[in-house]
Amino acid sequence: MTARSDLIRKRAIVRGTVQGVGYRVSAQAEANRLGVFGTVRNLYDGSVETEAEGEAAAVEAYVDWLHSGPSWAKVTAVDVIDVQPKGETTFRIR
């Protein structure tokens, strides 16, 4: 996929009980289900950072999912900003 004007990309920091509960694997599965590309990774402070790129409706659905995550996670906050699309073609756990 090349960077196109109809693509959006968002970066989110997810806080709460989000490490050690399968959050990244579940985020990757949700991104794949929605056709969203990007990355997800654990941060040293116990939060999870993710970037998601794709059609606006799919990215917004992914961001909505971040607020709940898998059933065993306890999300307390999600901070989201817009970033420049990179033209990624996969969704990777880093």
Automatic annotation (TrEMBL):
What would you give as a GO molecular function for this chain, any one? acylphosphatase activity
Where would I find the Acylphosphatase-like domain in this sequence? 9-94
* Active-site residues, as the UniProt record annotates them: 24, 42
Task: Check the record and name the Pfam families matching this protein.
Answer: Acylphosphatase
Q: Which reaction does it catalyse?
A: an acyl phosphate + H2O = a carboxylate + phosphate + H(+)
Q: Which PROSITE patterns match?
A: ACYLPHOSPHATASE_3
Q: Which UniProt keywords apply?
A: Hydrolase
Enzyme Commission number(s) from the entry: 3.6.1.7
The residues forming the signal peptide are none
Report the PANTHER family cross-referenced here.
ACYLPHOSPHATASE
Q: Give the record's family classification.
A: Belongs to the acylphosphatase family.
Q: What is this protein called?
A: acylphosphatase
Q: Which organism is it from?
A: Candidatus Agrococcus pullicola
